[in-house]
Every structure is written in C-alpha cells, then in structure tokens.
Amino acid sequence: MFARSFFAAAFFVVGLASASAQQPGGAPPPVTVAKPLVRKIIDYDEFTGRFEPIDAVEIRSRVGGYLQSVDFEDGAYVNKGDLLFVIDRRPFKATLDQAEATLVSAQARLKFAQADLERAQSLSRSGNISDQLLDQRQQNFLTAKADIDGAEAAVRQARLDYEFTEIRAPISGRIGRKLVSVGNLVTANTTLLTTIVSRDPIYFYFDIDERSFLAYNKVFNLVADSMTKTRPVEVKIALTDEREPSHAGTLDFVDNRMDQATGTMRARAIVTNPDFKISPGLFGRVLFPGSPEYEAVLVPDEAIATDQDRRLVWAVADDGTVSPRIVRLGPKSDGYRVIRDGLKGDETIVVVGLQRVRPGGKVTPQMSTLPPKR
Question: Within its chain, how far is the Cα of 156 from the centroid?
C-alpha cells in the first residue's frame, strides 16, 4: 500500500524514468551506495550577535587650555601610559610656582609664630606676660599652622593640574583619530579628544530566545556555569565572510532577566583576538551547543528524498532490492544531515542515482565510502 501511494506521488520523478531504468539485457540500473557515518557529535544552534570591546574609553582633558601637541598616529595601537596629548603647560607651571612660593611664606610665618609662642610660654611661667598676650600668640601659631595646611593643599592641586596637562592612555588598545587639532581650545571634562578600545580579548554579545534558553538550562546551568567557570560552555563563532566558524569562545555572562520586549536573554562570550583581526562592532554567527555529546547517524543531503511532507532514504538489501525508510531529520554537522530517527547506521543507502530507484525494484549497487567531512 505504501509503495503504491509513494509511486503515485513521485510519478514525475521516477515514473518516466522507469522505462529507461533497465540497462540493456534487463540488468538493474547502477547506483552509488554507502554506509551512513556514525559518530559522536554535539548539536549546535546558531545565533547572530555583535563583537564589542571589553574596555572602551573616551579621552577628555581634566584641565582646560589650548592644545599644544598630538603625540600619536591615528588608528595606532597604544599602551597604557603612552603620551597622547599635551595642553599648554605654561599657565599651570606659573600657578604651581606661585603655590610653592605661598607655601614657603606660610612655613616662615609658622616658624616665627612657633618661636614667639615658645617665648610667651616661658615668660608666662615666671608671670612676666599676661594671659591675653599668651592666648594671642597661641592663636597666631594655630593660624600659621592652618595656613600651612591650605598652602600644601594648593601646591598638591597645582601640581596635579600641571600633570593633567599631559594626557596619557588609561588602557592599552587601538586608538581612533584625533578629534581636535593643535591650537584649539580644550574645555575641561567636556571636549572629546579621541577614543580607545581594547582588542584582545574581545566580547561577543548575542540573544537567546526563551524556548532555547529553557532547553539549554536542562543541559547546562547557564547562569551558574558562566559565573563560577566550573563548567565552561564553549562556543564557536564565524564572521560574516566565513562559512565555517574559526573562532573559539567561552560563555562568561548571562543577563539576570529575560527581555520582555523581545523575549530573549542576553548572553556574552569572551574570545581571544591576538592578531586583532576582529574589530569591535562586527557581526558574527555563534554556534551554541544545544545538546550533550551523543552518537548520531549522518547522511548527505542528496541521499534524502521527499514524499509530500515526509523525508526518506532508500535502503539497499543484499540482493539489490531497494526499500524506503522514513526518517526524521536533525541539524547539519560537518556537511552531513543528522538522522534523528529511521536509521540505525548499519544500513546501505543510495547516495547517488535516486532518479533510477523505484519502490520494490532492484539496483546494481556500487559501494563507496563517505568522507569524514564535506
């Protein structure tokens, strides 16, 4: 009954060829056959995401003034502490010199006030000075000491401002272009001078739909595993110009709540980038492990036929008789299709010449071996 219904449905595929399927002398038509591949694999799901830097800094000056020099090449790699810009230092040097002079003057006043107080205390013990005069000299000493504290604070601030006229790289990474030319006025904490982004390692952010997230949690405890690193989840990432993933990453962050607007969970993988080929902002495809390792049956896509809404492969018996096997398909792995159900892996199936096969007929099998990868 099945052979009759299939033959009717696939009449346009095999019916017209049945007359010419037989070779001269009535020999069965030749077809290429092979054993399915059976090996342990992991199912991967694919998501789209974007690379982002681990560190990104907008460079602004902490002091205002006219830009005196730019000490880097646009787009160069800079190390932490490298000199990037210099603000005209002369006004800040003058302020520092004035603060240091004020400190010296305050130190002289303190020294005099301390000696004057000591004399007053000595006279007070013999009763040769009034209590009011002693208190006045005590006050002069405390005032001079407070002036020292204020002068020292002014020197520290002036020295800090003087140091801030040299703007250095706070992180290592690739610097952008200069946004302000020499001679322009720079406003403190406002004018954007350039940006720096780190390159190695780099983050890859992607969103997992709710159903997949729940399925993954049955295999991995995503939040706990990504936070504790006790069971790292490895992912594979391909750039948009790559057919196969060439970058390995490790899941290191899963957000603390599902996005209600999109119904997705934000996740992040950390990827090594020693040659700096991956730039922040690039899109990529991440292959996320959706199952534990298991033994799978793999066949090429061209060995799979279609019968209305069903998928089938043709199994060849020892005497050359072919019979259909209804199969349930899974994802692709190494260029082959995973067969979820319908094959055990020890069958001989037709891989080339499906148009010469008809239900219940015979073929002349020509044995071949499937390569490990396609």
Answer: 42
Residue 8 has pLDDT above 60, yes or no: no
For residue 71, give both structure tokens.
């000490």
Question: What are the φ/ψ torsions at residue 174 (nearest 5 degrees)?
Answer: -95, 130
Dihedral sign of CA atoms 57, 60, 63, 65 in order: positive
Note the pLDDT of residue 30. 92
As a whole number of Å, the end-to-end CA separation of the chain is 37
How many CB atoms are located within 10 Å of the residue 176 CB? 16
Per-residue model confidence as pLDDT tens digits over 131-140 = 777 778 888 8
Which residues have CB under 8 Å from 49's CB, separation 6+?
A: 204, 205, 206, 207, 283, 284, 285, 286
Token representation of residue 76: 């160069």
Structure tokens given for 229 = 């690193």
Let me know: does 198 contact 54? Beta carbons within 8 Å. yes
Q: What is the DSSP string of 251-297?
A: EEEE-SS-BTTTTEEEEEEEE--TT--SPTT-EEEEEEE-S--EEEE
Give residue 54's identity as a one-letter amino acid code: I
For residue 201, whether the previous peptide bond is cis, meaning omega lies within 30 degrees of 0, is yes
Give me the amino acid identity at 118: E
